[in-house]
Design a protein that fits this description.
Elements: E1 3-6, H1 12-21, H2 23-27, H3 35-39, H4 41-54, E2 58-63, E3 69-79, E4 82-89, H5 98-112, E5 118-124, H6 128-136, E6 140-147, E7 150-158
Parallel strand pairs: 4-5
Antiparallel strand pairs: 1-2, 2-3, 3-4, 5-7, 6-7
Length: 160
């Protein structure tokens, strides 16, 4: 399994390659980041590192033993001992248990390293794989809402 690492400045090149290589794949279930995201990637990466240093967000990458990034796992809007979980896994790594293992690992980190008591998530109905990942990791559906113009389910996970 790939290693979960906190995002660093030296991840920028590999992270940009990951996003470019999987852009079309991701756009099938989540909104496309748009051309501006890629054109301004260096500045955005620096902003992520600033937010991480401030403790408002924690950004992670899944790195293979060859140094290739095959996923992202983020905890954002950290406040009141809670955070919003978001993740994405490369098309080449999909269906191999990578997301399930990464979410299990981030749950542990959230509780032990970041001192969080709960995680929130939301997933559109047209992304059944993400629903399974969350449910396998103890997330419980708490409601429905619209997300980027699509029906979605909200989830909550109380951490041990």
């Amino acid at each position: 399994m790939p290693l979960l690492e906190l995002v660093r400045a030296d991840h920028a090149e590999a992270l940009l390659a990951f996003e470019r290589e999987n852009r079309e794949y991701f756009a099938a279930v989540i909104p496309d980041r748009g051309d501006e995201y890629f054109a301004e990637f260096a500045a955005r990466h620096a902003q992520l590192l600033e937010r991480q240093a401030a403790g408002t967000d924690y950004f992670h990458v899944l790195v293979t033993d060859r140094g290739e990034i095959v996923g992202r796992v983020n905890l954002v809007e950290v406040k009141d001992a809670s955070a919003e979980l978001g993740y994405r896994v490369a098309e080449a790594a999909a269906g191999q248990g990578v997301a399930t293992a990464a979410v299990a690992e981030i749950r542990k980190l959230a509780a032990t390293t970041y001192g969080l008591a709960s995680l929130r998530a939301k997933v559109t109905l047209d992304n059944p794989a993400s629903h399974r990942v969350l449910e396998r990791n103890g997330f419980v559906a708490t409601g429905e809402r619209m997300l980027n113009g699509k029906p979605a389910v909200t989830y909550l996970c109380e951490l041990d």
